[in-house]
Simple sugar transport system substrate-binding protein (Paenibacillus phyllosphaerae), 351 residues
Amino acid sequence: MNKFGKWSAAIAFTTLMVVTTACGGGSNTNNNAEPASTNTTTNTAQTTNSGGNSGGGESKTISLGFSQVGAESGWRTANTKSIQDTAKEVGFDLKFSDAQQKQENQIKALRSFIQQKVDVIAFSPVVESGWDTVLKEAKDAGIPVILTDRAVDSADKSLYVTFIGSDFVEEGRKAGQWLVDQYKDSAEDINIVELQGTTGSAPANDRKAGFEELIKSNSKLKVIASQTGDFTRAKGKEVMQAFLKAHKDIDVLYAHNDDMALGAIQAIEAAGLKPGVDIKIISVDAVKDGMQAASEGKINFIVECNPLLGPQLMEAVQNVVDGKPVEPRIVTIESTFTSEQAKEALPSRQY
């Protein structure tokens, strides 16, 4: 079996064994901070037919410029490690940049990759909008772009080759469906508070939309407050404290990722309430800390968001460089977990 066959097998195994969700993090705050960059160079993966700027017939190492959102959560850390480890395994020259959750830094990184004439650019967009100019610059330079984890809202789909990642709307639907099933016979209103991801980000927009689509079928399910927690534990705790002060009868918390849910749990416990009992909690990600909380009954339901995108990304990069067709949308396979299912799956968690 060749290396790409091994990747495919690994992907199938991983998606059965692993779960997650922040698929999130990130901010649209702009400043002059420079992105943190590191280069990892190896010499085994080579090409003679590059989709970017590797030249004609001479064999060379494939160069990949990758801009990451940041390191705001356990999900993101696992995502970064998967990409770095897989690039090293297959011998790509990975030029890695941490945008520190700032769109301006990410744009600087993409322009740096263009100047370096990498073969392929990949990035996880901090927010959905504001990318057309730099993507057109990459296209004009003949460098193909791959989106990972998050999409952009560009109307010009020719600006990127493919988007690899979760279906965030479907994740929201899964969360909403569980809630609908739990309260299908309720005669009373069910008050829901929502911790959204970073404002303007694809996972925040889509997880909210998918959730709302499902719960609108039951008029008893009412979202009484919704505010961003920026995908971080600290902000999740802070916003949940505000929710608890403003609303005395909260039945359900829907958090767009585990880190915010874990912060909210701290606030709920500090208020003398029991998470998972007094306030039901739904989360997205299924990182190890979230799964631990679920196994303890503090989170009632977790929707998986798989961070281990490295194998799929490297295979797509190789296919692009080789001039092979690539599907415009590559969706990761993901599951869901009740508290009991989380308890069973926890020992095998990879992150």
About this structure: The chain is about 40% helix and 20% strand. The two ends are 27 Å apart (CA to CA). The mean pLDDT is 88.
